[in-house]
## 1
Amino acid sequence: MMGLEFGETTVAVGDDVVGRVLVEQFDHVHRTSVEDADVTVEFRRGFVQPPDGCIEIHGGLWVDHDELFVDARKGAPGFDLTGAIHERIGDGGHQAKITGNPLRESTEITVFYDERAVESNSRVLRQIIRSYNKNYASRTEVVAVNLAEYLVEALLHQRLLSNESALCHASGVVRGGEATLFAGWGGVGKSEVSGELVRERGYDLLGDDLVVVSQDGTASPYRKRMPAYPQSIADGETTYREVMAGRGPLDRGQWRVRERLGGSKSVRRMVLPSSLSGHSEDVARLSGTPVTTAVNLVVEDREEIRVERTTPEDIAERGASTMMAEIDSFTDKMRAVHAASPTYWSGVREMTEQSDRTYRQALAEADTYLVSVPPEASGSRLVEVLSNQVLSDSE
């Protein structure tokens, strides 16, 4: 087993081909002992039937008191071209048996996957599949990333809540022993702001998309692979050389072809922050950094960027709603589980309220701002305004 530490919460991951890729998604996360792990993830090859005693309560969802069985296979018709392809390359989905309510106790996850999806004797077929993916990712990477985003992070968030912490949908930076968080809905500019502050102004990166916050008013890193798009490279967020370091001609060619045919959003590479200019490799020292500033970014139809003071309660409420939306594929299942076993399984309302309380306490001593951003505003312009009116740069 491989141990990962997020704040006070430990995740133990089985030493399996998918497990190793799952661990590799994270950038210099503190490796730790797997004894008494909060969340344990193990792997089994081949799909199975739901355990005896489980009752189907929803499509692809079975429950038996303290145990859930989730069938997230993608599936395909058996007698057409799509079915024939799936028969050859395997199903990229997964099944999961989940034991223990993460809001109340340690949780064990057993993941079942189609070994054909991660192993193929055909090099040509593997290359075709990889080129079809805009990340130029192997099937093993796809299975691991889907597992992280649609299952593990949702359970990790709940387990963090039981340890007086939470995942927060925000980018975060640190300078001078103080953390600043940029929260908001996807596409509002969180990554652009944190990226420029790291590259140009000497900040350290806490996280690009998610950050761990704690009720004691501190934040800790949640650094996993981050997307680099053609336009972000052109704007100076990263460099082509850094993104493509160690990649072969087919990889580089796929980038150029997809960009030309599909546009700048049709291709990207998922890279570790520490491989890019200015992003520190020394992640452990950032754990437990006091949060002194929190900014909620919103897009509005306006001409100028507007900065106004707000309250920790306002940002917490927005943050709880955003986080529930981020893990919606799992919270949708939780609604059905709670309806079937309300005495054991927590509902989405309880998880939302607990997230709100955690955010309020985490931000209680922080300066909090609401920043309204025009759709056309550039990242550099937003950083300039924030530096002048919000960040310590303005002092």
## 2
Amino acid sequence: MARFSPFEVSLWYATAAPPPKTGPLQGRRRADVCIVGGGYTGLTTALDLARDGIDVVLLEAQEIGFGGSGRNAGHCTPTFTHYSLPELRAMLGEPWAERLIARQTGANSQVAGMIERYAIDCEWQQNGYVMGALTPGGVGRLEAKAQQYNAVGAKTRVLDRQASEEMTGSPRYHGGWFHAEAGHLNPLGYARGLARAVMEEGGTIHTGSPVRDVVRQDGAWAVHAGEGTVVADKVIFATGAYTVDGWPGLDRSYKMQKVFVAATQPLTASERQTILPRNTTMHDGRGDIFVYKYNAEGRIVASMFPMGRRGSDMAFTHRLMSDRLRWLHPQLGSDLRWEYFWFGELDMQKRTIPRLYQLAPGVVALTGLSGRGVPTGSMLGGILGEWAKGVPEKDLALKLEPLRRAPFFMSFAPAAMLRYYRVSDWIRAKASGSPLPPHA
């Protein structure tokens, strides 16, 4: 069981299908590839390699899905959060931008395919995602987003006010952006199912095996973990925000940003008929986001970023989330309880896209998912798998780069940006005469 603070209780640990049986590494083991980290990125890489008959060993310090892969809110929307597609092209250049765009926008097909192929029990629902517009001006921005994503093959459309209310059950939105390929799931169940798939394909997984160091030995790499050693030709670090030891400086390549997730009691059947009646994922469209969806039991699962008392004062946080949800959905009953609450951590990068680091010949690391866990972590396995199979660097979808320490300002930049978004949301609402949600 993952460690949480006394006031944290995770819905996913209460409801996810059990993990496959694994245990600590003991003794000495030879492999083609050793992967460090049992989250989506490490698991999908291991699965990609094992399917091709490559001898792969995955080492996890705690348990499968211990980090962000088991703590996120379960949204699976194959988009880029902080950048428009033109901005991404300008930042990355070609061919890197188009390759990454193709991988990310196609990630949900990969997720759905793995869930179906391996019969993963994870509450998968692919009913789409709606980003709302709480001001009239927000609709225009969503129209630009739809044009960009549809141009690369995504199935999206802009909803008018009536269609938005019909799909979401909220009268607050002036319109919305609907992404038909998006979905949601039980993220810990998905991680555990991926682990089971890796083992079915012949891969080896050891949990409770923290990696101490990696040293060059007789032309290969000796990965010392727990009470054993894996000797491999290639090593991949996929530990993200939960990096501890293993390789000097890797844990300084990003900065941490917390996010919290909470779940209500199951809503009544009548409430579910008018609140997200099509079982979509809902983003309220604000920069200071409020994202929510149902789990299989009919609980609303919502996530926000901590700010001030929000996330630290539990009574205030529960009241704020209740007020926000009732503001969006006035038909919600007065008896609303938040029965689960937990935190996750994000490995934030300045550019908020994954970074592929060349640590040494035959050793790479990938960090910086920056909150795009389910689809991004799932599609990255293919990229890392290609690297391990010897695909030339020039043909990969991510550029290999030397390990860099995250700039100092990233220690406070994510929190500062949240406050900036909150002020921007307030200014836009006031300027348009639109109502503000509680505690905005």
## 3
Amino acid sequence: MQKTPISEKRRVCVIGAGTAGLCALKNSLQHGLDAVAYERGTDIGGTWVYSEDMPKNEYDEVHSSMYEGLRTNLPKEVMGYPDYLYPTDIEESFITSHQVLDFLRSYADYFKLRPHIKLQQEVIRVRPRLDDWEVYVWDYTTNKCDPIYYDFVYVCNGHYTEPDWPEIEGNDIYQGKQMHSHLYRKAQMFAGENVLVIGAGPSGMDITNHIRKVAKQVYLSHHLDTTPNTAFMGNVTQKPDVANFTKNGAVFKDGTEETFQHVIYCTGYKYSFPCLSTDVGVQVIDNFVQPLWKHCVNINNPTMAFIGLPFNVIPTQIFDMQVRFTLKYYTGQRDLPTREEMMEDLEREIGERWNCGFRNKKKAHQMAERQFEYYNELARLAGIANIKPVILKMMKDCGKKYIFELDSYRNNRYKIIDDENFIKNGK
């Protein structure tokens, strides 16, 4: 099949039908493009789909990281799409994973996306041709794999599939059970046991809070500059980083030693794109996906975009904004910079990050306070609507609550008054 004639609709391949993939599909269709989303699972929703599947062998992949009893660590008021919000009849702001999944399904139904979604079909290889993309799709229902050709590719496969395991001395001699939070599902398996949790990010803090209710003792190992609030967790003891494991436990960097039967690594994930061929022109080096313009456009092949790489951001809102940003260029409303200009811009940003102390490549896509500058830049360059100020204000109000107010912050209830203002707990 040859390149799509200019007189016909341009074709878009969306890899994944989670939060990012759904908005890439919806916005592409609304811009008059012929778009299809491929999802290897049996349902839409990506990481929000709960599954108790475990790896069948060392080569098997488990795509869901969802665990029993999870509630969001951001209020639903900032988790909606700009043009599709969570229903106001849900009183709680911090909702369950089931409610998030129901919302994503309703989004797909409202915008009539399902006819354009291919379930149980996995993109297994993408490679550039002279003027388009060759995409091989494996159909699990027919066990057939055929090439399909597209003008644009949106990579929306998420980054909660490949665990990032730390290298710690002695973890090969430790005889207890070790697992990554990616495979954590239920607290009950730790009943009456001593457990070490490594990492005090949102998942580490939340899983600690879940399992401490059934475990005998939980040790929370981290290197945060500020001490998280665990005063309400009577059987949780905070520890510094592990110096080395022993046969039955570990020695920590303060010289103390503890024994435990389980280790849970809440140490994050690696960006992974196994379906992309090497000639796509993108590498992942120390979790730095490069070279990308504005953290999304493939500089070497700019008709490919990666949606959702930045972290410490407002997830759904940034997904939608990145898609709208790239579509301004893909539909010809804006001209992309030259490759040289995009590389210069990337190098400038990397230099700024390094000068600000972000010398760890693993933090190359971390935004945090820089996210607001990033949103402004996307809006300015492409002439698109920015994230509403009320969303940004609520996001700032939620900052670090999972560390300092884990026992109570999910009781807060937010309500949007207008584009600028919100109230919390009726005030």
